[in-house]
Amino acid sequence: MPGLSREIRLFASQQPMPATEEIAGFPVRPGLYLASGAVEVPGGVSFTIHSVHATYCELCLFRRMEREPFAVLPFPEHFRIGNTFSMIVFGLDIYEFEYAYRMDGPHNPAAGLLYDRSRFLLDPYAAAVTGQSGWGGDRPDGQAYHARVVRDSFTWGDFPSPRRPFRDMVIYEMHVRGFTQHPTSGVEHPGTFAGLMEKLPYLLELGVNTVELMPIFEFDETAERRTVDGKRMLNYWGYNTVAFFAPNTSYTAALEYNREGTELKEMIRTLAAHGIEVILDVVFNHTAEGGADGPCFSFKGIDNNIYYMLTPDGRYYDFSGVGNTLNCNHPMVRQFILDCLHHWVVEYRVAGFRFDLASILGRDEDGGPLAEPPLLETLAFDPILADTKLIAEAWDAGGLYQVGSFPSWNRWSEWNGKYRDDLRCYLKGDGGMAAAAVQRICGSLDLYPPEERRDASVNFITCHDGFTLYDLYAYNEKHNLANGWDNQDGADVNHSWNCGAEGETDDPEILALRDRLRKNAFVVLLCSRGAAMFLAGDEFGNTQFGNNNAYCQDNEVSWLDWSRLREHEGLFRFVSRMIAFRAAHPILRGPTAPARCGWPDVSLHHGVAWNDKTDYDTRQIGVLFAGRNAEDTDDDLVLLAVNAHWEAHSQTLPVLPRGMAWRLVLHTACPDPFAPDSAFDGQQLLIGARSAAVFLAERESPDTPH
């Protein structure tokens, strides 16, 4: 690409390029056509924007916080190459202006063309957006979004990228604001990236090695403008992107004018230095412009019929459930998404992405699913993204469900929704679920054959969407009245169980059962093959009071109440030890070298040794993982036994090779599961009702009696 090389040479020379003419009192020249967005260059700024159908484009410059431009610079026709407008404007101080565009062209809504020369348009490549820094502050009606130029002076140095193998991930899904916003968090900068960093010692004590952040791209939390029972509803989760290249500035502890992203980068670097990777939850299926009644502030006014899926009469397809659907497999949109991901990997060093409603990314321009979607293939083979985790939420709001069949090229992984559903059903004692539970624990090989889908399953029982783990065993029904939709929103099928009382109770037997079921869930999750993920706060009993769709609750419903850490410290300690146990035994995460004893990689021992039979009434399972971590180590043999029945059942273990003995690592039926007081004779254990146990084979000491 000779043009790109020339631009890089000009930029790297750090010599001002000569102006060729003057517009609105500013010296200008043709810009950096291959550098989208606003890029600071010696002596000025290059502004580049693309539009297929626009016949006219002008750059509007604003004083900070002002609504009318102080200068308007039309792009000369000879500054346009193809569908790209590009201009360098000299004499600009990036600290003294904001910018937007206005475009003109045909206005024909039936054909999807919405050009309006009076409308200010946000640069799709904006690295920072104005007017968003104060969380929850209403934007005045009609106020347009403006962009700022960002000067990147951040130095990564010898960045310690963990590059963690997929199967080794223990993912902690969190909302940046909700993680520390509650007064009990005890941080100096609640609700921010800095506040999250203040909790680093906690994350290290817990033992998670990957943090998955719910949307942090600039979004409009005030979009809903509703009040329910005196409480203001916000688009708290952030699944309504305004700008894809800009971090949410309301998540910073201090204003970062023209250096936006610095605090986020500091956080990513700090976490990485302690072995914790950062994954971003990204939303490329729709935007905050919504449907026909939604605002027009960027894509709609630039190329509405390019960026969005439209019906033949110009209406919006809605496979996202929020009014519009990005036209992801159009070549221009595909390039935009690729550029965006490159930006976050190169400029922010993120380790991966979780793609919201990712099945939309595989639809064609008419909404039909593609067998080999160009976008997904492009991302799978892109060299910049080669070490980046690509995780699909393999369904969408249009009914396309692709868990186990998402187009992958042996590269994409998936949120394993079947793991969540099957394990929820099994763990609460449903009949006919034992065989499915075993499949999920062993890596879901029925969904992800290793020769076709290596490292594909992200196992989870809870996530932001649905009940917390505490609520999963405290509520039979959703309690979403606080959302203002008459309890009609949120999933109706949750596979939950209140253990005999809806919501809070003082019954000690119910409380003990609920605690045991939560520990069982963590035991199974952290002894399952694949990556493991759980929702922040589950480790100390965080509750949303039965709300399974808290997307609009910027309050005590969604914020983590850290006082519960003291109340449920035993659960926290248990989860931390389980994470450490998983880390110490690679055989739990995936196949290793074959065991010297000759036992298979995975074998089944449902109740008695070597029993692999299940039927509808089977509720007790035993899964034994066997392997070896290195040539000079003993066999690593771990047996997970789960009794989901309401009665106790014995578990008989297989006879070990001479010189080895079984140790009971934990039994959730005991007051202290990791100090089990159960009667274990070395070969058989009576597993308590609705309890789990883990056994580890160890080399006998010389004085062990025989």
TL;DR of this structure?
The chain is α/β, with parallel strands linked by helices. The longest helix is centred in the C-terminal third of the chain and has 19 residues, at 508-526.
Could you describe the 3D structure shown?
A hairpin with an 8-residue loop joins β5 and β6. The chain has 706 residues and is α/β, with parallel strands linked by helices. The N terminus is likely disordered. The protein is 20% helix and 21% strand. It is built from 14 helices and 30 strands.
What characteristics describe this protein?
706 residues; 8-stranded parallel β-barrel; 21% strand; elongated; disordered N terminus
The helix tally amounts to: 14
State the separation between the terminal residues, measured CA to CA: 75 Å
Main beta-sheet strand count, sense and barrel state: 8 strands, parallel, barrel
Q: Which range does the strand content fall in?
A: 15-25%
Q: What is the helix fraction of residues, given as a range?
A: 10-25%
Report the principal-axis shape. elongated
How many individual β-strands?
Answer: 30
**Spatial strand order of the main sheet:** 12-13-18-19-20-21-22-23
Q: Compute the gyration radius: what is it?
A: 28 Å
Structural class: alpha/beta
What is the residue-averaged pLDDT? 95
Low-confidence stretches: 1-10
